[in-house]
């Protein structure tokens, strides 16, 4: 399944079979290098929050698994992000852009391989975020991110969605040689990316966001 350039997708994140986060993204390209997606500041998203409005990172995981939760409509308040979902591997690579579309950093998001789906009026891809990530600065200095979150949550195997942490670490280590050698996608490709000026910000998360998880 290939997606046409310009098409709007839902990039849905699951904790096991439970939907917890879904931004609206737009397809830049879909080819042998992977699926390239654009997610600007202000993008509509849905996210899971505690009933009082707190997020997962606002409390310990022990507290999070006990609190009542709800899905809310929100917007992405972070930087503009270009995301590459490669055709193989359990990760995606993000380009983060600051003010004036200045490239700021890469971000390697360790995650399950995505499952694509297309219902006609709405389409998307589903994944599980594995929490451990890698920051990569423009000079290609890199560092692990969220090792503490991974370690904490592994103490709750009945609730946590990462069953094989050793494979998550192995996937991260597999990406490191490309970072250090400056080979694709860390070779400067798309660091000067500019979105199509005809792409307007999607006003809301489309209907159909709550369809069952792909491959379930």
For this structure, the quaternary state is single chain
SS content category: mainly beta
> What is the rounded distance between the termini?
18 Å
Q: Would you count the extended β strands for me?
A: 12
Main sheet attributes: strand count, strand direction, barrel closure: 12 strands, mixed
Helix content range: 10-25%
Determine the mean pLDDT. Answer: 96
Radius of gyration: 17 Å
What low-confidence regions span 5 or more consecutive residues with pLDDT below 50?
Answer: none
Order of helices and strands: EEEEHEEEEEEEEHH
Proportion of strand residues: 35-45%
| Shape category | globular
Number of helices: 3
Q: Can you describe this structure?
A:
- The protein has 216 residues and is mainly beta.
- Helices cover 13% and strands 40% of the residues.
- Strands 1, 2, 3, 4, 5, 6, 7, 8, 9, 10, 11 and 12 form a twelve-stranded mixed β-sheet that branches.
- Strand 7 and strand 8 form a beta hairpin.
- It is globular.
């Amino acid at each position: 399944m290939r997606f046409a350039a310009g098409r709007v997708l839902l990039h849905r994140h699951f904790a096991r079979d439970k939907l917890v986060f879904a931004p609206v993204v737009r397809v830049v390209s879909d080819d042998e290098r992977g699926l390239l997606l654009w997610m600007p500041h202000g993008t509509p998203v849905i996210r899971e929050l505690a009933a009082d409005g707190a997020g997962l990172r606002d409390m310990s995981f022990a507290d999070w698994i006990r609190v009542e939760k709800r899905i809310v409509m929100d917007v992405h308040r972070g930087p503009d992000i270009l995301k590459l979902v490669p055709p193989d591997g359990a990760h995606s690579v993000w380009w983060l852009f600051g003010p004036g579309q200045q490239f700021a950093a890469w971000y390697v998001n360790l995650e399950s391989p995505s499952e694509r789906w297309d219902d006609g009026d709405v389409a998307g891809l589903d994944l599980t975020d594995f929490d451990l990530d890698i920051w990569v600065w423009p000079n290609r200095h890199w560092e692990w991110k969220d090792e503490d979150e991974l370690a904490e949550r592994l103490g709750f195997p009945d609730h946590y969605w990462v069953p094989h942490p050793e494979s998550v670490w192995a996937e991260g280590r597999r990406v490191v040689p490309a970072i250090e050698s400056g080979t694709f996608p860390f070779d400067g490709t798309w660091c000067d990316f500019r979105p199509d000026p005809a792409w307007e910000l999607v006003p809301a998360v489309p209907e159909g966001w709550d369809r069952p998880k792909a491959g379930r």
